[in-house]
Design brief:
The protein is an all-alpha fold and 513 residues long. The chain contains 18 helices and 2 strands. β1 and β2 form a beta hairpin. It comes from Gasterosteus aculeatus aculeatus.
C-alpha cells in the first residue's frame, strides 16, 4: 500500500514542481536569517564591535571564495575532452546534484539552528556560524542553480522551472511575516522553537523531494541490455585511448573563461546589478526615514517593506511569461530601460510628490530584484555556450555559477561603502558618527527643490534617483554587447541538446512517469 501511494505521488507531482519546491526549503530559512542574525548577536548576545567587524571581514572573504571552490570540486570531473573515457549522461549528472542536495540540505538547516542558541563566546560563535551557514548555503544554492541548466536546454522548459521556483520562493517569504509573532528580544524561547520548526520542515522537505527526484532519474541511468552490449563492444577497441587527453586544469579553465566574451559582458552587467540590489537593501530603511517618515504612518512604511520583500517573487511570474514570448534578453533590456525611465521621471517630478516617491522607492526595489530572479536563465545559457565552444564532455554548471558569484560578489561590499560615501558627499552626514555637518556638501543646488528642503532629505533623494540612473546606463551599455540571444542562442541550444545527450523536458522530465 505504501509503495502504491508513493508511486501515485510521483506520477502526479511533476519534476518542475519538485524542483521548484526546493526553493521553498531554502527561502523559509534564509529570509529569517537575513532579518534577524545581526540583531540577535548585537542585542541579545552583546557581541563587541571589533569581533563583529572581524567576523564580517572573514565572512566577506569566505563568501567570495567558496562559490568557485565548491563549483570546482563539484565539476572538476567533467572538465575532460569528449574522447577521454565513456560519456557521462545527463541523468547521471542530475543524480550527482540530487545526492549533494540530499546531504547538504539538512546540514544547511542544522547550521541555521546554530545561530539561535548561545554555545560559545559571541565573537567566536558569530564567525563560525556565518562561515558554516554560508558554506552549506553555497553548496545547496550551487547545485540547485546548476540543475536549472542540467535539467533543461530550451527556453520554455527553463522558464517553467524558474516559474515554479518563484512561486515557492514567494511562499517561503511568508516565514518572515510569521516570525514577527514570535520575535521577542526579552523572551527568546518562542523564537527558538519557531526556528526549530522551520528547520525540521526544511530537513523533511529536502529528504522527501531529493528522494523523489532521485527515484525518477535512476530509471534513466539504467541502460537497456542492447545499449549496454553496444557500449561494451565499442569500448573494447578504444580502451587504450581512454585516457590519452588530460583533464582541464583550473588555470586552463580560467583561460578559456577569460576568452568567453559573453561571459565577461554578463559579469560586468551583473556586478552592477548585485551592487544595485544590495544598495537598495542597505539603504531602504534610511530612505523611508528621511524621505517619507514625516508624511506616512508607521503602518504604511511597514507595508512598503512587506511589498518590496514579497512582490519581486510574485512579479517574476509575469516576467517569466514575457520571457517565453519575447526572450530573456529582451525582457531584461526592457527592465533596464524601465528603471532608467522611472528614475528620470522621478528626478523631474521632485522630492515633494510623496505618493509618487512611495511608488518609486517600492517599484525600484521590486523591478531590480525581479531582474536578479531572471539572471539564472542567462547563466544557464552561458553554461550551454561554454559546453559547445570548449567541447566539454559535460556542462560544468555548478562551476560556472560559482565563477559568476566570485566576480559579482564584490558588489555586495561596494554597495554600503559607496552608499555611505555618497551620503557624506551630498549631505555631510556620517552614519558612523551619527553627526550631521553644519555645512552640507550638496552636488545639486537646493533651489531645484525649494529652499526649505533639508540637506539630508535632498541628499537622500539624489541618491535614490541618481544611483538607478547610473546603474541603468552602465547595464544597458554592457548588455548591448551581449550577443547570446536570438538565432545565435538557438544554434547553441541545438548543439548543446545533441552534444549533451539531453531529451526535451516536455517529453520526459517535466511530465513525470
Amino acid at each position: 500500500m505504501g509503495r502504491r501511494a508513493w508511486g501515485c505521488w510521483l506520477s502526479v507531482v511533476s519534476t518542475a514542481v519538485l524542483y521548484g519546491s526546493l526553493a521553498l526549503f531554502i527561502s523559509i530559512l534564509h529570509n529569517v536569517f537575513l532579518l534577524y542574525y545581526v540583531e540577535t548577536f548585537v542585542s541579545i548576545y552583546k557581541i563587541d564591535k571589533l569581533s563583529f567587524w572581524v567576523g564580517e571581514a572573514v565572512f566577506l572573504i569566505w563568501n567570495s571564495v567558496n562559490d568557485p571552490l565548491f563549483g570546482w570540486l563539484s565539476d572538476r570531473s567533467f572538465l575532460t575532452s569528449p574522447q577521454s573515457g565513456p560519456p557521462i549522461t545527463t541523468p547521471e549528472v542530475v543524480l550527482k546534484r540530487l545526492k549533494a542536495l540530499s546531504t547538504n540540505g539538512p546540514l544547511f538547516a542544522l547550521s541555521f539552528l546554530a545561530f539561535w542558541v548561545a554555545w560559545a563566546s559571541p565573537g567566536l560563535q558569530f564567525l563560525l556560524c556565518l562561515c558554516l551557514y554560508d558554506g552549506f548555503l553555497t553548496m545547496v544554492d550551487l547545485h540547485h542553480s546548476a540543475l536549472l541548466a542540467d535539467l533543461a536546454v530550451c527556453d520554455a522548459d527553463r522558464t517553467r522551472l524558474n516559474f515554479h521556483c518563484s512561486v515557492f520562493s514567494a511562499l517561503g517569504s511568508l516565514s518572515v511575516f510569521l516570525s514577527y509573532s514570535f520575535w521577542d528580544k526579552e523572551d527568546f524561547f518562542s523564537f527558538r522553537l519557531f526556528c526549530v520548526a522551520l528547520a525540521a520542515f526544511s530537513i523533511l522537505g529536502f529528504f522527501l523531494v531529493s528522494r523523489s527526484l532521485r527515484r525518477r532519474f535512476q530509471k534513466e541511468v539504467r541502460p537497456r541490455p542492447d545499449e549496454a552490449a553496444a557500449l561494451k563492444e565499442l569500448s573494447v577497441g578504444h580502451a587504450p585511448l581512454a585516457h590519452t587527453e588530460k583533464p582541464v586544469t583550473i588555470r586552463q579553465y580560467l583561460g578559456q573563461l577569460s576568452k568567453h566574451r559573453n561571459f565577461m559582458w554578463f559579469v560586468s552587467m551583473n556586478l552592477v546589478q548585485v551592487f544595485h540590489c544590495h544598495f537598495n537593501n542597505n539603504f531602504f530603511p534610511l530612505f523611508l526615514e528621511h524621505l517619507l517618515s514625516d508624511n506616512i504612518t508607521a503602518s504604511t512604511g511597514s507595508l512598503l517593506l512587506g511589498i518590496s520583500y514579497i512582490a519581486p517573487h510574485v512579479n517574476n511570474l509575469y516576467f517569466l511569461t514575457l520571457c517565453q514570448r519575447y526572450g530573456v534578453y529582451q525582457v531584461i533590456r526592457w527592465l533596464f530601460m524601465l528603471k532608467l525611465g522611472l528614475s528620470v521621471a522621478m528626478l523631474l517630478a521632485g522630492a515633494d510628490h510623496i505618493y509618487l516617491l512611495c511608488i518609486f522607492i517600492a517599484s525600484n526595489r521590486v523591478f531590480t530584484e525581479g531582474t536578479c530572479k531572471l539572471l539564472k536563465l542567462v547563466i544557464s545559457d552561458l553554461v550551454d555556450e561554454d559546453f559547445v565552444v570548449n567541447r566539454r564532455q559535460q556542462a560544468t554548471s555548478a562551476l560556472l555559477f560559482g565563477m559568476v558569484a566570485l566576480l559579482t560578489k564584490p558588489g555586495q561590499t561596494f554597495a554600503p561603502l559607496i552608499g555611505t560615501w555618497l551620503l557624506c558627499v551630498y549631505t555631510g552626514y556620517d552614519v558612523f558618527q551619527r553627526e550631521t555637518a553644519g555645512d552640507a556638501v550638496v552636488a545639486v543646488p537646493e533651489a531645484a527643490f525649494g529652499s526649505g528642503t533639508p540637506p539630508l532629505r535632498l541628499g537622500c533623494f539624489h541618491m535614490v534617483v541618481f544611483v538607478p540612473i547610473t546603474c541603468a546606463l552602465l547595464q544597458l551599455a554592457a548588455w548591448s554587447r551581449f550577443t547570446l540571444h536570438g538565432r545565435k542562442l538557438q544554434g547553441i541550444k541545438a548543439l548543446s541538446l545533441v552534444g549533451g545527450n539531453k531529451e526535451p523536458l516536455h517529453n520526459v522530465w517535466l511530465c513525470g512517469w
